[in-house]
Amino acid sequence: MNLEKMNIGAMIKYHRQLRNMTQSELCNGICSVTHLSKFENYNKEVNQETIMLLLDRLDISLESIQKATKSIAADLTKLLDAVLSYDKKRATECFKRVEEQREYITFSNYIARYHLYVYRYFLLVNDIENAEKEKEILRQIANSLSAQERELYEYLNALLQMFKGEYKPSLDVLLRLEANDLLPSNWKAELYYFIAFNFGNLKDSSSCVAYGLNALEEYSRTFNYLRILHTQFLLGIAYTDLGLYDNAEEQYQFIFKNMNLINAEELTSAMYNNYALLLEKTGNMEEAFEYYLHSMEHAKSDIEYLMSLCSYTELLITQGEKEKALRNISKILRETKTSATRKQHLTFKYYQYLLRDQKDKAMSYLEEEVLPYLDKLFFIEDYNKFALSLAKYYSAKNTDKALYYYKKIAER
Predict the structure, then answer these.
(1) Cα(182)–Cα(4) distance, rounded to whole angstroms?
(2) Taking each helix axis from N to C terminus, what angle separates 167-180 and 147-163, rounded to the nearest 10 degrees?
(3) Which region among 37-41, 82-86, 320-324, 379-383 has the lowest average model confidence (pLDDT)?
(4) CB atoms within 10 A of CB 376
(5) Which residues have CB under 8 Å from 90's CB, separation 6+?
(6) Closest Cα partner for 227 from 200, 198, 187, 199?
(7) Which of 57, 296, 298, 383 has the greatest number of beta carbons closer than 10 A?
(8) What is the pLDDT of residues 204-238, one digit of tens each?
(9) Cβ contacts of residue 53 below 8 Å, gap of 6+?
(10) Where residue 2 falls among pLDDT bands split at 50, 70, 90?
């Protein structure tokens, strides 16, 4: 009987307690209570005949245990492959199969791998509540994790931070993990991708491109087509921010041509939103308006719709559409009350004051609320943009404050 991957003693104890049996009731006529106690609690060696008799009394099929030990590793591998491929449908199917074996996994040597992979799955499907639960479980068993498993745990914690909008602390951890080079090789492409993602959100577009190209190379090597599109999407945004509009256009056109071939409809809203930004940067305002509207129409979640509405409203502001912008801002402020949308809430509250001709109040809010938040979370480009507005405002009122903000901009 090849059960070296299973803690049979702990499993027998679990099922005995589940059936409200005492040790005496279970071992009567099979072995001594002392022998059973040592087996249950310390997995002391017991001969095969004794194990068979105990399992039979518990009405547990040895065949089912042996079958489970063979399939657990394979099913966990399939789950991870689906998650890293960003195949949510397949990942959910694999997750359900794994959960069917949870009882056996609990008593196996795969328990850490199970919690790590399930943690990553919950992040994939944006189930933050359950991801937090897995994080806590892993924290409790951290001392039993191998060096590589601890690196994966830190990696997943960094992703959780990122999904909460904490880009700088997340990036710091990911860069350290890259330097350590202990993550399994099949996680490397994703590591590069999320480093690029964090750099992109922090508006370090050059670094975003560098890591994005690394991710693209890794994903191309494994023919991970959906992730290739995701990475090109990141590159399109970064190239736009860098003013490399032809490069950005090339990325977007490739995505438009291929996204329907691999059922990447979930990219549609974000694609339209960011392509609209490229059009805006190149002066095609009418087309930009159209693509922002397309983005909102194709949004598959409230947050996608909200991000597109924010972009659309900023364009309305720059084009002098004051009343339309104010109507949108009222909706934005109602919908941006979570920590993940704190930046949008602060930004559009500032815009609301400006559009209502409350400039002094707007600048006070900018100084006391918006800039400290942007500074704390290292939104450098946004900070510099608003700090410049504040410096200009103070130029005629308070020279020292104006110089202070000009200096802060120069330091970045």
Answers:
(1) 27
(2) 160
(3) 37-41
(4) 10
(5) 82
(6) 187
(7) 383
(8) 999 999 999 999 999 999 999 989 999 999 999 99
(9) 30
(10) very low
Distance between CA 108 and CA 118 in Å, rounded? 16
Instruction: Please state, in angstroms and rounded to a whole number, the distance separating the CA atoms of residues 197 and 171.
Output: 9
More confident residue, 394 or 105: 394
| Residue 74 CB coordination number (10 Å) | 10
Domains and CATH numbers, the chain: 8-60 (1.10.260.40)
Could you give the 3-state DSSP secondary structure of residue 320? Answer: coil
The Cβ of residue 176 has, within 10 Å, a number of other Cβ atoms equal to 12
**What is the band of 5 on the pLDDT scale with cuts at 50, 70, 90?**
low
Q: How confident is the model at residue 43 (pLDDT cuts 50, 70, 90)?
A: low
**Angle separating helix axes 188-201 and 205-221, nearest 10 degrees:** 160
- CA-nearest of 144, 145, 174 to 162 is 174
**Helical H segments across 183-244, by residue range:** 188-201, 205-221, 225-241
Residue type, 275: Y
Give yes or no for a contact between 294 and 253, defined as CB atoms under 8 angstroms apart: no
- What is the enclosing helix (H) or strand (E) of 408? helix 399-411
Q: Of the candidates 68, 83, 163, 89, which has an alpha carbon nearest to the alpha carbon of residue 116? A: 83
Residues in the chain: 412
Phi, psi of 365 (to 5 degrees): -65, -40
Tell me the two tokens of residue 101: 């074996």
Q: What are phi and psi of 125, to 5 degrees?
A: -90, 10
Closest of 376, 380, 371, 375 to residue 412, by C-alpha: 380
Q: How far apart are CA 113 and CA 137, in angstroms?
A: 12
* Other Cβ atoms within 10 Å of 281 Cβ, number: 14
Rounded to an integer, what distance in angstroms lies between the CA atom of residue 26 and that of residue 55? Answer: 10
Residue 357, amino acid = D
